[in-house]
Amino acid sequence: MKKLKHLLTLSLTLLLSACGFHFANDALSQKVFNEVQLDTGDKYSDISMAMKKELRLRGVTLVEQGNVPILRLNGVSTGDTVASVFKQGREAESLLTLSVSASLQMPDKKRYPINVQVSRTFFDNSRAALAKNAEQRTIWNDMYRQAAQQIMIKMISIQQQY
């Protein structure tokens, strides 16, 4: 019985590796452009810092100028809407939304728009105001990181088309 399990596991592994199976988020492990110019209005904004970190994490060199693709962060909008309320009428849960508009300009001056949106729910505990602010800041930082990852995935798909 033990040999049968090993044989089944081995055959399943060989079958999956031979058929070209890959994970859905495998795009993040692919190499994006070697060099990119990052153009943003505020180079110290949360999205700019998250994008720089994500680009460096993927091995992309940030350059000031040259004949390289230009990633422009055009705008960021945030939203906070009430998702549920307590019996007393106080806000219980809110939906945090982050929308990022960007564009990728290739060296031949062709532009590709990139729009991403990230949403999260946040439980508003009014009894722990200090902890609430720290938790909300952590959620926003995670949302900026996730938006930067989504921009990277879209950049990889543009690179594959280019």
UniProtKB/TrEMBL annotation:
Component of the lipopolysaccharide transport and assembly complex. Interacts with LptD. GO terms for cellular component: cell outer membrane; transporter complex. InterPro entries: LPS_assembly_LptE. It is found in: Cell outer membrane. Together with LptD, is involved in the assembly of lipopolysaccharide (LPS) at the surface of the outer membrane. Required for the proper assembly of LptD. Binds LPS and may serve as the LPS recognition site at the outer membrane. Its main location: membrane. One of its GO terms (molecular function) is lipopolysaccharide binding. GO terms for biological process: Gram-negative-bacterium-type cell outer membrane assembly; lipopolysaccharide transport. It comes from the Bacteria. Keywords: Cell outer membrane, Lipoprotein, Membrane, Palmitate, Signal. This is LPS-assembly lipoprotein LptE. It is a lipid-anchor. Pfam families: LptE (PF04390). Gene3D superfamilies: Lipoprotein like domain (3.30.160.150). Residues 1-24 form the signal peptide. It comes from Gallibacterium salpingitidis. Belongs to the LptE lipoprotein family. PANTHER family: LPS-ASSEMBLY LIPOPROTEIN LPTE.
